[in-house]
Design a protein that fits this description.
The chain is mainly α and about 130 residues long. Helices cover about 60% and strands about 10% of the residues. The chain contains 6 helices and 3 strands. Helix 1 crosses helix 3 and helix 2 crosses helix 3.
């Protein structure tokens, strides 16, 4: 099955786009990632093209300069997270969500407050189902 969510490196590019309050150009993305991501501007442009191919972002051509594209979000961060979680559970836990959650809980050192928060989430889910 073809991957339709951002890779780890693409996720950094997406964070910039998700956090932008308007459509954003490649130059603006590159500028915001400067010092954060140790790759060239050309590599960032490749990452943008991969995100376009995955359908995570879209673009509009600038009205005054056809060489400039303005990128915008097509898939929300929440949608991408949900897809990543589903794929992870399917690949590493055979689709068994209970096994995945149990595995994480057993390996985590949670405080009483964190355990209570999880209990609250479970109770909320019980009421909704």
């Amino acid at each position: 099955m073809k991957e339709t969510t951002p890779s780890e490196t693409e996720w950094l590019v997406m964070e910039v786009i998700w956090n932008s309050d308007k459509k954003i150009t490649a130059s603006e993305i590159i500028q915001k990632l400067e010092g954060t991501l140790k790759v060239t501007a050309r590599t960032i442009r490749v990452l943008i093209n991969r995100l376009l191919a995955k359908g995570v972002i879209g673009y509009e051509v600038d009205e005054k300069d056809a060489r400039i594209y303005h990128y915008y979000v097509v898939k929300s961060k929440e949608s991408c997270l949900r897809e990543k979680q589903e794929r992870f559970v399917r690949h590493y836990f055979g689709g068994d969500s209970t096994l995945a959650v149990a595995s994480f809980l057993e390996k985590s050192q949670l405080s009483k407050e964190q355990l209570q928060e999880l209990e609250d989430i479970v109770e909320k889910l019980k009421k909704e189902s």
